[in-house]
Design a protein that fits this description.
The structure holds two protein chains of two kinds. Chain A contains ten helices and eleven strands. Chain A is of the alpha/beta class. Chain B has two domains: 145 residues, no CATH class; 99 residues, Outer Surface Protein A, domain 3, CATH 3.90.930. Classes of the chains: A alpha/beta, B mainly alpha.
Chain lengths: 288, 283
């Protein structure tokens, strides 16, 4: 069994969470479901004062919140957008979010946003660039940043490193935390002919603070990370394999397209709970 | 493009990052323009796999990029899409996306200049003047959903002002209140589309005046105003003290003074209950 985690950055483990989506606001308001925490998309509320912000202000009184971003563009060659970071920090402080996460990717350059999570060339130069930027972000935010492994649909000929090794080296170099998206590992492994379990085994699990689980769309030649369906069995197995390497991390189910009724999502949360229980039992058995 | 050129000239790229910066710029442009004529460069930069060529792998990003913007803009400008039809709307969106890349981290703000693009594009747009106004109206509504608003004055706040202080009273509207004039009956058209009624593209008619605001339940309202009511609210919105606003409004209006006075009371009652003001100051 793996060594006990040591780099959780003193961050709490709030348990099992869900993405806070407007379709479920009324249900949450009425039923106060037994979800341990919610994740918000940072950009949807940091510059807006509408329904999502109002719901956030209301629900944060009842649930811990974490923030997940899509526009940090940590791998870009553009200067870091300090105004954006300022608004991110202000939002985190105003809602008492447990942590802030974003993706290991670039989203644009020359001040333009593609609103896509574009893949990085995994090279020593890009590793150095990302590490420097993560350190700046963490110094500014005065907190560890969680970086999520992205889904990707192409690889660069320039790449010289396995994605998991790049993440591992970056986490060590910049001393940051990881958000492990197990579905993304499955998607990228399929798209790039990698072994998903080997990918998991290369990740430094002592830095994994949060998990994402989601469904996807299999297009035959490739898999698209659509967050539009149930988590498939293979991803659950991968999750159990990974979770057993931690001594507990926050787990969240994502569903962002063709969003079902809340009960359907909650059933996925309970399924995750069962896998976490089994994984923990396996760890405990191994320690006997 | 001025902003891009300015940023490009001020960017300090470290020597060992120039290659990656060039790769990023190439890749972003290739995705934005679906540049299949970049086949050689795509083959050079992107690794194929057993199932997909380098071009096919890039095409996943081509498709996702434009689909994302089409989805957002067709939703924000649903009535424009209804009037044009989806293929023509897609053609316009594609041209807009190429001409004006997103510069805001939140994609929900992306359509803010689409009405201007619709006015100026060289693409042949049928009923252009009408569609520009319809896009302006839908853009305004979208912006109301996103903006930060101030709290409304209590409904009885106006009644607490002593009669002798009324004329020196200055009312501050909430940020979500705005007033608009349209040459076309775009509000009626939008209402019909929202109700899924059959509706023809209308001709320009007498100027329509709209008050648009968001209430405390975050619902956005559109109220058509007569010229005098619109004039009075415009003067109050610009910070004119109540006494002067009323006097100037009566002088400018065709409405008989007694009708104006009785109407004014119901207007203020509406404005109080709608909560369109956030502050009141007696100068």
């Amino acid at each position: 069994m793996p060594a006990a985690p040591t780099k959780r950055f003193d961050l709490p483990n709030p348990g099992l969470g869900l993405g806070l989506r407007s379709k479920h606001h009324d249900y949450i308001r009425e039923h106060r479901p037994q979800v341990d925490w919610f994740e918000i998309i940072s950009e949807n509320v940091m510059d807006a004062g509408g329904r999502s912000r109002r719901a956030l202000e209301e629900f944060r009184e009842h649930y811990p919140m974490v923030m997940h971003g899509v526009s940090l563009s940590i791998g870009s060659t553009d200067p870091l957008d300090m105004a954006y970071l300022g608004r991110l920090k202000a939002l985190r402080d105003s809602i008492g979010a447990l942590w802030v996460s974003d993706h290991l990717c670039w989203t644009g350059v020359l001040g333009e946003h593609s609103h896509q999570l574009l893949p990085l060339p995994y090279t020593e130069e890009v590793l150095k660039l990302c590490a420097e930027r993560v350190r700046i972000v963490q110094d500014f935010m005065e907190a560890p940043l969680l970086l999520e492994n992205p889904s990707s649909y192409l690889e660069f000929n320039k790449s010289t490193m396995h994605e998991a090794d790049f993440m591992s080296a970056l986490a060590t170099e910049a001393d940051c935390a990881l958000l492990l998206d197990v579905n993304n590992i499955y998607v990228s492994a399929f798209n790039h002919d990698l072994d998903a379990f080997d990918y998991v085994d290369r990740i430094p699990h002592d830095r994994v603070v949060q998990y994402h689980l989601a469904g996807h769309s299999n297009k035959g030649d490739y898999i698209l990370d659509t967050h539009s369906d149930h988590v498939i069995d293979e991803v659950w197995q991968l999750f159990a394999h990974s979770y057993a390497k931690t001594s507990g991390a926050a787990v969240m189910v994502e569903w962002d397209d063709e969003i079902p009724e809340f009960e359907v999502l909650f059933a996925e949360v309970n399924k995750a709970r069962a896998f976490m229980h089994d994984a923990q039992a396996e760890v405990n058995h191994g320690r006997d | 493009m001025a902003a891009t050129e300015s940023l490009a000239s001020s960017r300090m790229i470290a020597e060992d990052q120039r290659e990656i910066d060039a790769l990023y710029q190439w890749m972003l442009r290739t995705i934005q323009h679906e540049s299949r004529d970049e086949a050689d460069a795509i083959e050079r930069e992107i690794k194929p796999n057993a199932r997909m060529s380098a071009m096919q792998r890039m095409e996943v990003y081509f498709d996702d990029y434009i689909a994302r913007f089409r989805g957002i803009l067709r939703e924000d400008f649903s009535a424009v899409t209804h009037a044009l039809g989806r293929p023509a709307m897609n053609e316009l969106i594609d041209a807009y996306v190429r001409a004006e890349p997103s510069r805001h981290p939140n994609i929900n703000f992306y359509g803010s200049t689409f009405p201007d693009f619709l006015r100026e594009t060289k693409i042949d747009v049928p009923h252009r003047a009408f569609l520009v106004e319809l896009a302006q109206l839908q853009g305004i509504i979208t912006s109301k959903f996103l903006l930060h608003d101030d709290a409304a004055l209590p409904a009885d706040a106006l009644q607490s002002v002593a009669p002798e202080q009324w004329e020196n009273c200055v009312l501050t509207p909430r940020p979500s209140l705005s007033l608009h004039r349209f040459a076309y009956p775009v509000n009626a058209y939008l209402r019909a589309v929202d109700r899924e009624e059959d509706v023809e593209i209308p001709e320009a008619e007498s100027e329509a005046r709209l008050q648009i605001f968001r209430d405390d339940k975050l619902k956005v309202w559109r109220v058509e105003l007569n010229p005098t009511r619109f004039d009075l609210l415009s003067r109050l919105q610009s910070g004119t003290p109540l006494g002067i606003a009323l006097m100037e409004c009566v002088e400018a209006s065709d409405m008989p003074a007694d009708e104006f006075m009785s109407s004014m009371q119901s207007w203020f009652a509406d404005w109080s209950s709608d909560g369109i003001f956030s502050a009141l100051e007696v100068r």
